[in-house]
Amino acid sequence: MQKPDAVHFRLKATSKKNALQRLSETLAAATGTDPRDIYDRLFEREKLGSTGMGDGIAIPHARLSGLNRVYTVFATLDEAVEFDSVDEKPVDLVFALLAPQDAGADHLQALAAASRLLRSKEFCARVRGASSEDAVSALLLHEDTALAA
Questions:
Q1: Which of 8, 61, 107, 142 is catalytic?
Q2: Mean pLDDT of 108-124
Q3: Catalytic residue at 142?
Q4: What residue spans define the domains of the chain?
Q5: How many CB atoms lie within 10 A of CB 50?
Q6: R_g of the chain computed on alpha carbons
Q7: Which pLDDT tens digit goes with each residue over 4-33?
Q8: Phi and psi dihedrals of 51, rounded to 5?
């Protein structure tokens, strides 16, 4: 899994929509794309079914034309928000992915890698216990290296 393009520590979000808006702004800065276009795509995907996978985790994702690779943002939320998760629990860890329209396997591989990472209860506990953005980034880098091995 590639290193995230950005990491947010204790991102302030008041709702699922607000979290998606904040993440869209970050993805827009990384991609040079209009944040509204990114938000619209992420929200369209949420209408198909929540990307809240349970245990306080969500992996919102979408495809967008004009991109040359997969972009990712990882965020810990300041306070958990309702995300229509499968277990009906609020979300406090979000891994957002934005892939080229024709990404195919790259998009699926990025989703699978994020899912594998966030299914580790040990990893999630360490991230939730982290005290800074640098600490979260270090955990992601360590896990990325471990997953690649």
A1: 61
A2: 93
A3: no
A4: 6-148
A5: 19
A6: 14
A7: 999 999 999 999 999 999 999 999 999 999
A8: -90, 10
Crossing angle, helix 133-148 and helix 121-128, to 10 degrees? 160
Closest CA to 96 of 21, 12, 33, 14: 21
Q: What is the DSSP letter of 94?
A: E
What are the residues facing 98 on neighbouring strands?
A: 62, 71
- CATH architecture, range 6-148: 3-Layer(aba) Sandwich (3.40)
User: Does residue 92 register a pLDDT over 50?
Assistant: yes
pLDDT band at 104 (very low <50, low <70, confident <90, very high): confident
Q: Give the pLDDT band of residue 117 (cuts 50, 70, 90).
A: very high
Q: Round to whole Å and give the CA distance between 116 and 90.
A: 20
